[in-house]
């Protein structure tokens, strides 16, 4: 695992997990996990289902006990193997996957609830709740109960509730899993503006790579209950630790090629032809000259012009772009073009590589 | 505070076990010991006496007949309301469950007023159901009385086991409506069908109200009516000896019938289904067919419940037997007669008992729901569920054997009987609601800064409120209706309203009986209906399905 450094200059991170292990039904779900979230950071926890994302959030919020390790929130130890601060005293605001809105209350009462728990009077709590609902553009729904709200509206009420308790750390469990794509965009913008306004640290669990890359300052890839890679969105997308990490963060193909790092660039020999691509750099997974190693190519790193040859096997039109799956001497490659399809399956085409990444030892695919 | 809660962790389990032992296990143990202590001679005398042996045979035959009629009826009604585009679905559902609101002895008595000799139809059209007083009548009325039970079990089974999509998949694969019923729906329902059959059989065996109203006048005895008559002659030791042997025999018979389905009784499936609109008809609606079936169901409900209740009302209102039931002959004299004796006191006693049992069992049901979610208490809920299947007569006689010396002839022993028999009626709704309660609701409240007790007070309890009201209503309703145990346990000054009504009926005063039976029915419906309405409104506001 690579330890990423929090981008914050603050000495005390909003969240610090050290060696956190947790069991569920006698199965180890979190296994020695380390993770820091700086005081103004948004860290996305990206992983396939079953990787332990929700378990991690529940452990941080205080809904399950640790088997080992330590969790600190704003410098204060809130959980160890033997001791746990109850959830209500951990200063977290959580947005639940299925929103968990209380069916017997109105939106206003739900949002006012956390403020009431911190000792605010009914009037004060309602006033602050109303302000939040206004900021989120749903003040008109204040008197409705959850059963009368749409999914997107429920989600905003859940968000408003999480914001109204003056939390030190926000926890989001698959915040957009049940929203349609238009609402997801709205939610991401809200996340971004909220971060600018409040500067409160957030941890977002998601299985959606595009969302993880879009909302976060850093991304943690979660595999088998531990962090497999941690880095900026560009880091994890352009320099994945292995094939599993590469496929978790987006579409990719691997070909067999001879590669040589030359300064910032990568000199590739693919099926006898030579190309020079970006992606050498200093932090390449493997340096120097390598024979027939696995080279990772994202669809957007390749073009349908160039010295390399291939045959179109599959054409997939997705609106903004078209993906071609090429059969080449070095293996199957997906190439993306930002235009409508211009080749039929079976066509013989030329292609090239603008950027590539030499993978470390092969690992199992996710 | 957290520590205190943790330290008290085993207290609820201990309390529930002590109460269960006291109200069920000790009495049953004492009953068994008493029978064994009496030796073979008393068993032989009780069971192989010609009359007693015949009572056992009658009980089994009536149960078999009732099951054979009520199971297909309940199944057909469930398929009609849950699997076809029937018009006025919710009205029909309500109508089908309506007999549950009518006490069994009221149903039996009102059938006599409607279809018996010199009953309403006899007077109007010289039509009477032959053999109404006797096994045929008992089977018919018990069918109407128990069909809602089968309906509930099968409808729940349809909701959990046979999801509409499974049937739609069969239709899409080319199966006709009938093919689907035969090859998909009924096979998936095998479990619920077997369970419903066993429950109907057991419920009919332990039934007392209908046999005592329709069987005793014709000299047709079942085990429960024989136990009742034996206790009427309680001065004779031999009679009581026979009663305890019959009680234990009834427990054994119920155990034999229910043992194969015991698992499904302990763990009824929770109602979840994949999508699909309400009622989920499979395939395009066929208006004419379903209208016809809905019409048939309505006629059944009218003949089974509507006409008899109307006949009872007319009997209660008409001044004297033999007069035509027209407004000119109406008077309230029967009501005055009915209320003259011990009825007023009994009404208060019944209401107090029902309310007390309701609150006590809310506490006990909540206790067991909590305990069974902890590692050591898992099986406690199952055990409590099984107590409902104990025949009421056996529970009552076991309580007399165990505690009669101290509590006999007091209202306390009736109260204990209600606790023993109805515990699960409160436990099941609460436990089911807890199962359906998303755990994230409480977590969200804790994450919002609420402590354990605050979360319980502000979130969990309000969300569970409809289930709490429903559980109370159920116990309240069953307690007001209860006749089997109350009639065995009541002393002259501890009679409940149901017992007073039965005594009037046994004395042969039709008018006064009808008046009092009407009051009992109106009182139960009048007290229960508002609770159910409030529960319904709360559920709707929270977006919970019925």
Structure description:
The complex is a heterodimer of chains A (366) and B (546). Chain A is α+β, with helices and mostly antiparallel strands. Chain A is built from 8 helices and 19 strands. Chain A has helices at 53-61, 107-117, 122-135, 151-163, 181-198, 209-215, 233-238, 243-248; strands at 15-24, 27-37, 42-46, 68-73, 76-80, 92-95, 169-173, 201-206, 218-223, 226-231, 253-262, 265-270, 273-278, 289-297, 302-317, 322-328, 331-337, 348-353, 357-358. In chain A, the strands form 4 sheets. In chain A, strands 6-7-8-3-9-10 form a 6-stranded mixed sheet, sandwiched between helices. Mean pLDDT of chain A is 85; it is low at 1-10 and 362-366. Chain B is globular. Chain B has 25 helices and no strands. By secondary structure, chain B is mainly alpha-helical. Helices cover 77% and strands 0% of the residues of chain B. Chain B has helices at residues 2-7, 11-47, 50-83, 89-97, 104-115, 120-125, 135-160, 164-172, 177-188, 190-206, 209-215, 223-232, 237-258, 262-266, 287-317, 333-340, 343-371, 378-387, 392-407, 411-436, 439-447, 452-481, 484-489, 497-507, 510-541. The two termini of chain B are 37 Å apart. Chains A and B meet through strand 6 and helix 2 of A and helix 21 and helix 22 of B.
């Amino acid at each position: 695992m690579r330890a990423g450094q929090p981008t914050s200059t603050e000495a005390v991170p909003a969240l610090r997990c050290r060696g956190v292990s947790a069991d569920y039904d006698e199965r180890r779900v979190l296994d020695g996990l380390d993770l820091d979230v700086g005081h103004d950071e948004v860290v996305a926890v990206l992983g396939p289902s079953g990787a332990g994302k929700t378990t991690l959030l529940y452990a941080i919020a205080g809904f399950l006990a640790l088997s080992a390790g330590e969790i600190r929130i704003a410098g204060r130890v809130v959980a160890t193997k033997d001791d746990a601060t109850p959830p209500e005293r951990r200063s977290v605001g959580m947005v639940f996957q299925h929103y968990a809105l209380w069916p017997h209350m109105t939106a206003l009462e739900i949002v006012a609830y956390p403020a009431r728990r911190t000792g605010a009077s009914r009037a004060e709590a309602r006033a602050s709740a109303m302000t939040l609902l206004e900021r989120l553009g749903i003040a008109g729904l204040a008197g409705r109960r959850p059963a009368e709200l749409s999914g997107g509206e429920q989600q905003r009420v859940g968000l408003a509730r999480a914001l109204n308790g003056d939390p030190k750390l926000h926890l989001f469990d698959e915040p957009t899993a049940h929203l349609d794509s238009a609402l997801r965009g709205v939610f991401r913008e809200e996340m971004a503006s909220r971060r600018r306004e409040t500067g409160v640290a957030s941890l977002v669990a998601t299985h959606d790579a595009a969302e993880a890359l879009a909302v976060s300052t850093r991304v943690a890839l979660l595999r088998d209950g531990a962090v497999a890679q941690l880095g900026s969105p560009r880091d994890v997308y352009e320099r994945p630790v292995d094939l599993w990490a590469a496929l978790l963060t987006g579409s990719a193909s691997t070909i067999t090629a001879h590669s040589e790092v030359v300064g910032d660039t990568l000199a590739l020999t693919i099926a006898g032809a030579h190309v020079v691509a970006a992606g050498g750099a200093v932090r390449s997974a493997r340096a120097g000259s390598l024979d027939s190693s696995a080279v990772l190519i994202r669809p957007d790193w390749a073009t349908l012009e160039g010295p390399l040859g291939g045959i179109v096997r599959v054409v997939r039109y997705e609106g903004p772009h078209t993906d071609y799956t090429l059969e080449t001497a070095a293996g199957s490659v997906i190439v993306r073009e930002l235009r409508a399809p211009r080749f039929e399956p079976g066509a013989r085409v030329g292609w090239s590589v603008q950027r590539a990444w030499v993978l470390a030892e092969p690992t199992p695919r996710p | 505070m957290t520590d205190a809660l943790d330290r008290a962790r085993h207290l609820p389990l201990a309390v529930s076990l002590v109460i269960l032992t006291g109200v069920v296990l000790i009495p049953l143990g004492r009953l068994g010991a008493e029978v064994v202590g009496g030796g073979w001679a008393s068993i032989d005398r009780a069971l192989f006496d010609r009359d007693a042996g015949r009572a056992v045979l009658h009980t089994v035959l009536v149960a078999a007949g009732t099951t054979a009629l009520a199971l297909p009826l309940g199944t057909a009604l469930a398929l009609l309301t849950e699997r076809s585009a029937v018009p006025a679905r919710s009205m029909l559902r309500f109508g089908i469950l309506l007999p549950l609101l009518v006490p069994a002895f009221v149903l039996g008595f009102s059938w006599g007023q409607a279809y018996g000799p010199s009953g309403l139809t006899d007077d109007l059209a010289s039509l009477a159901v032959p053999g109404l007083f006797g096994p045929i009548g008992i089977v018919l009325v018990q069918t109407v009385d128990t069909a809602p039970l089968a309906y509930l079990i099968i409808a729940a089974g349809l909701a959990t086991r046979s999801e509409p999509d499974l049937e739609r998949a069969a239709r899409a694969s080319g199966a006709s409506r009938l093919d689907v019923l035969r090859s998909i729906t009924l096979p998936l329902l095998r479990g619920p069908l077997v369970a419903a059959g066993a429950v109907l059989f057991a419920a009919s065996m332990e039934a007392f109200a209908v046999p005592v109203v329709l069987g005793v006048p014709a000299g047709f005895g079942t085990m429960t009516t024989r136990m009742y008559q034996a206790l009427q002659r309680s001065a004779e030791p031999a009679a009581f000896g026979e009663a305890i042997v019959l009680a234990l025999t009834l427990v054994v018979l119920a155990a034999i019938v229910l043992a194969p389905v015991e698992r499904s009784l302990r763990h009824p499936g929770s109602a979840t289904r994949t999508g699909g609109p309400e009622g989920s008809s499979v395939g395009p609606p066929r208006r004419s067919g379903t209208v016809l079936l809905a019409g048939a169901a309505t006629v059944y409900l009218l003949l089974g419940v509507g006409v008899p209740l109307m006949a009872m009302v007319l009997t209660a209102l008409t001044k004297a037997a033999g007069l035509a039931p027209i407004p000119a002959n109406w008077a309230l004299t029967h009501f005055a007669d009915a209320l003259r004796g011990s009825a007023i006191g009994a009404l208060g006693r019944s209401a107090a008992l029902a309310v007390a049992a309701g609150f006590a069992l809310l506490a006990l049901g909540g206790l067991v729901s909590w305990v069974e979610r902890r590692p050591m208490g898992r099986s406690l809920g199952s055990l409590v569920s099984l107590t409902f299947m104990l025949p009421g007569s056996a529970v009552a006689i076991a309580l007399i054997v165990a505690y009669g010396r101290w509590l006999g002839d007091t209202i306390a022993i009736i109260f204990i009987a209600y606790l023993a028999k109805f515990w699960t009626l409160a436990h099941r709704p609460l436990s089911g609601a807890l199962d359906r309660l998303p755990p994230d609701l409480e977590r969200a409240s804790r994450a919002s800064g609420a402590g354990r007790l605050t979360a319980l007070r502000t979130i969990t309890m309000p969300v569970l409120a409809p289930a709490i009201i429903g559980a109370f209503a159920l116990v309240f309703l069953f307690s007001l209706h209860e006749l089997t145990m109350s009639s065995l346990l009541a002393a002259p000054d501890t009679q409940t309203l149901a017992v007073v009504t039965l005594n009037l009926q046994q004395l042969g005063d039709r008018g006064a009986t009808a008046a009092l039976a009407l009051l009992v029915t109106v009182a139960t419906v009048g007290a229960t209906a508002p609770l159910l309405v409030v529960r319904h409104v709360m559920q709707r506001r929270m977006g919970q399905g019925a």
